[in-house]
Amino acid sequence: MTTTYRTIQGDTWDNIAYKLTGSINFMTDLMAANFDHVDTVFFGAGVILNLPAVPDDTSTTLPPWRIGEGDE
Q1: Which of 1, 6, 58, 60 is the most exposed place for a label (fewest CB within 10 A)?
Q2: Which tens digit of pLDDT belongs to each residue from 53-63?
């Protein structure tokens, strides 16, 4: 697996996490691995971010607003 990610103009933490894993839950790990950029909201193009190992359950975990959907 790639150990870095090069941002494109307008990338955000949640967007990057979703692109890489299919889940925004990876965002916390991604931010922790790139503490120097933690205050960035919108990235410019070409920022190199370190990618931590992706937990096995990341891609199958639903975001909080989707949990319980359809139970009504």
Answers
A1: 1
A2: 887 654 445 66
Q: Which of 19, 24, 15, 20 is nearest to 53 (CA)?
A: 20
CB of 17 within 8 A of CB of 55? no
Name the token pair of 50. 């370190």
The predicted-structure confidence for 13-33, as pLDDT tens digits, reads as follows 999 999 999 889 999 999 999
- The answer to whether 24 and 17 have CB atoms below 8 angstroms apart is yes
Q: Which H/E stretch holds residue 48?
A: strand 48-50
| Sequence-separated (6 or more) residues with CB below 8 Å from residue 44 | 7, 9
Backbone angles phi, psi at 5, to 5 degrees: -135, 130
